[in-house]
Amino acid sequence: MWISSHLKVLLRTLAPYFHTTCRSQAMKASARHLPKVYVTRRIPPDGLKILHQSGCCDIEQWDSDDPIPRSELLKKVVGIQGLYCLLTEKIDKELLDAAGPSLKVVSTMSVGYDHVSLEEIKKRGIRLGFTPDVLTEAVAELTVALLLATSRRLIEAVDEARSGGWGTWKPLWMCGSGLSACTVGILGLGRIGEAIVHRLRPFGVSKFIYNDVAPRHELARKISAEYGKNAF
Hints:
Layout: H1 4-14, H2 23-28, E1 36-39, H3 45-54, E2 58-61, H4 70-76, E3 82-85, H5 93-99, E4 105-108, H6 118-123, E5 127-129, H7 136-151, H8 154-163, E6 183-187, H9 191-200, E7 207-211, H10 217-223, E8 225-227
Parallel strand pairs: 1-2, 1-3, 3-4, 4-5, 6-7, 7-8
């Protein structure tokens, strides 16, 4: 599901440039010039499958786990209608000039789009697809994992076990701190901050304090978090 959201933008945008409406007709029309889509990296198979099964685009891919060299990318975008990129590709005036007026949509497999010049794509009427909520759960879970590993000194304990430092039982050795009845601070109370609160509450955390550019009153009330402007 997560990979399909930005691809739908790409396919919806390209559809008007491919006048065949069903797949069987698409097969018969294989001799026609389909909209060209360039994929800048080796992506999950499900994503490539969506593009292939749509039957409405001619796909070329940089088939590597490493970023495509800039010089190669500038050559490959010439005359394409759709670009499927990652954060490693800078979508700026130079690249858009190289692609030319045929480019109708850019889809990026990322939450952020700092690598895309919004001003330039707006001027050219190019649509942008991205994945705004795709990493919320993963980042929240990793944050909780890191918090537990740090508070309970798991990394230190693993190192001691590997190096032979794990000797006789000592009551205070590697105790660490628990989350029960503690206060947890959150920097930035957005989607990820909210997801972290929901995951930590069952651990018995007594108070959540957050800091942000401005108080988030409605969300803070919803999750019982207190605003602490100078808390961190």
